[in-house]
Amino acid sequence: MMKYLFFGLIVLFFIACGQPPQRNCEDFKTGEFKFTATINGEEKTTTFHRTLELEVDEFEGKKDSSSIRWINDCEYILKNLNPKNKAEEQPIHIKILTTTASSYTFEYNVVGNSRKFKGTAHKLD
Predict the structure, then answer these.
(1) 52 FRET partner, CA 20 to 30 A, in 6, 73, 95, 113?
(2) d(Cα 54, Cα 34) in Å, to the nearest integer?
(3) What's the rounded mean pLDDT across residues 92-115?
(4) Separation between Cα atoms, residue 125 and residue 122, nearest integer Å
């Protein structure tokens, strides 16, 4: 019995010590991306082009621009350059959690708000 318990603990240890998630954030600092979200039960796609200092989003035929302030290689703050209401004045904190060769998973929230959301963006170029 003790032998099986010991063997189980060894296996559990190796599973728990697996590779950490890949985070090659540098590959996603600039480029053209697409992000799809479900809004009111309907899938909506946003495309955006990002440089180191500016992000231009296109959603349902409308373009919007935001400044970017990088906190570190994997986190940045977006601030809408032309807010149309109070909600759009709020900066958004984005943190890249994991990356693949062509996409990244991120977490985002309004600065000062603890409610966080997740999404995946796919690189187009």
Answers:
(1) 113
(2) 16
(3) 95
(4) 9
pLDDT tens digits along 3-52: 555 555 455 455 555 555 678 999 999 999 999 888 889 999 999 999 99
DSSP 3-state assignment of 56?
Answer: strand
pTM of the model: 0.79
- Cβ within 8 Å of residue 73, ≥6 positions away: 25, 26, 29
Q: Which residues pair with 59 in a beta bridge?
A: 46, 62
DSSP 53: S
SS3 percent helix, strand, coil of the chain, rounded to 5, is 20, 50, 30
Q: What CA–CA distances, in Å, run from 55 to 4, 20, 22, 40, 45?
A: 55, 29, 24, 25, 16
**Tokens standing for residue 104:** 């990244």
- Structure tokens belonging to residue 80: 């809408």
